[in-house]
Design brief:
Layout: H1 3-11, H2 13-18, E1 28-29, E2 32-39, H3 48-62, E3 67-72, H4 83-89, E4 94-98, H5 121-130, H6 133-142, E5 146-153, E6 160-162, E7 176-178, H7 181-189, E8 193-195, H8 199-208, E9 213-214, H9 219-224, E10 233-236, E11 245-251, H10 252-256, H11 260-296, E12 299-302, H12 305-323, H13 328-350, H14 352-359
Parallel strand pairs: 2-3, 2-4, 7-8, 7-9, 10-12
Antiparallel strand pairs: 1-2, 4-11, 5-11, 6-9, 6-10
Amino acid sequence: MNRRKFLATTAVATASAAAASAFPKPAISQGRVQWRMVTAWPKGLPGLGTGAENLAKRITEMTEGKISVKVFAGGELVPPNQCFDAVQSGTAEMGHDIAGFNMGKHRAFAYFFGVPFGMTYAEHISWLHYGGGQALWNELSAQFGVRSYAVGNIGSNIFGWFRKPITSLSDMQGLKMRMPGLGGDVIRKLGAQALSLPGGEIYTALQTGTIDAAEFTGPANDLALGFYQAAPFVMYPGIHEPGPVQEVVVNKAKYDALEPTLQKIVDVACQAAHEDMMAEYKWINSQASKTMVEKHGVKFLRLPDEVIAGLGKASGEVLTAERDKLDALGKKIWDSYVAARSQLKSHTEVSEMAFYQARAMDYPFPS
């Protein structure tokens, strides 16, 4: 998908959302239901958009049409940032976005998306499935009448696209950067100005100098949007999103009304879609990174150690302060997340991390 197509798709959000009431309600015929899945993504967006389409197809096929799922891109039925609200209200039966979008409803939703210097993709999924994270997510989501699933992960992100490279901690002072959520709180502590912009506005903001830098989803989607044309420097690592998890939310009443076999199919289909999207992103991001360097001359630069250390210190301060803002359930989620990070981090350092460091050494190897 190119940037013009992306912008054209997102531009129809307001008009399309206004016409939402014209869409037919789900049909029920001979035990068959039609579910609507609203998403926060443009139609056909690699990874996110195509992943939602694949999940809908998988559920429809696995249930032999007993649940037929129709996908609506961001803006086609509701605005991209209102997926959770649409599912909660029953306007749609399913939604695909990220839990971090819903911090306004409860700040603890952030921990099911990911936090700065938090858990990697593998660690996060381990916590969800075996460390009690999913049970806590279910408890939180039930307060809003939905069920939540981890469906999709872009892997460890880049830190962002920059018009000028970051060479020292002082370069963060006054920097205007598109960085929503807790990551935005972190860079503010270093003197930067964190802004929240829709994906369709990022390129123009970079091109005109309204912002100096921006993060979005990663190489594949960022390449499609043409960020390299306005900001040729990619800084890494993406400390703000070490393993960001996308979510599917399902209206709890609609799910509970299904027979147990169909419920299980929805559960398994979501888990399969999660693994599939992670695999797709790993592949297409590697291809996009190669294209950026070889075709467009993008410079990939590592953040200086003093900047990483400063971001780490600020992240610790932000996360510590966050706990005081949470209610009893939120504190329980915070405690569980932090404990899991500590436990899993110690093993990662002598397993995956140790191997990555060894593999990065200079030695003869086929390529």
